[in-house]
Amino acid sequence: MRKVLYIMGFLSDEDVDWMSDTGRVVRLDRETTIIAEGADVREVFFVLSGECTVAIAGAGIIAKLGSGEVVGEMSCIDNASASATVCGGAGCTLLALDRRDIDARLASDAGFAGRFYKAMAIFLVDRLRAANRRGVDQGADADLDHDELGDVMMDSISVAGLRFEHMLRKLSGAS
């Protein structure tokens, strides 16, 4: 759940509503490849519930991702093909945002673009720092230490959690 704080903490309520309204909910009933290593990535996915695994050819599973995690964000930033395969298990629910929709919003709304890119930069920097701390050969757990949130995130934690909960309620039809 913590990873969503990097995104929702910098986006506005309007941005989160746009994501909920624009994205499509994907419910998996069996193990499904969401992103294939080497393929073009056409969507960014937010894990709403359940679990996804991230694997790299030759290395196997390198991470397990749960609620609040984001996948496909790297290719959204640099337009490169996927660097890993992401699979969702049975019971996994995702919010899929088409990159064309994101690109259109980025082009038409400078405020959104600034918030989105700042959120992604902080998210990716934190992921890189965590990987550096773990070292290359220290297993498949990608969770960050929960006591290492930086000052920049402390101010937005509660509002980010509320925004994610609002998104979940909205997507479930409860709000």
For this entry, give a set of tags.
globular, about 20% strand, Jelly Rolls, four-stranded antiparallel β-sheet, about 180 residues, 7 helices, alpha+beta
How is the biggest beta sheet arranged?
4 strands, antiparallel
Q: Please, what is the oligomeric state?
A: single chain
Coarse morphology: globular
Rg estimate, integer Å: 15 Å
Q: So, CATH architecture?
A: Sandwich
Q: What pattern of helices and strands is seen along the backbone?
A: HHEEEEEEHEEHHHH
User: Which percent band covers the strand fraction?
Assistant: 15-25%
Question: What is the CATH domain class?
Answer: Mainly Beta
User: Can you count the beta strands?
Assistant: 8
Q: How far is the N terminus from the C terminus?
A: 21 Å
Structural class by secondary-structure content: alpha+beta
Question: What is the helix fraction of residues, given as a range?
Answer: 40-55%
Placed side by side, the strands forming the largest sheet appear as: 1-8-3-6
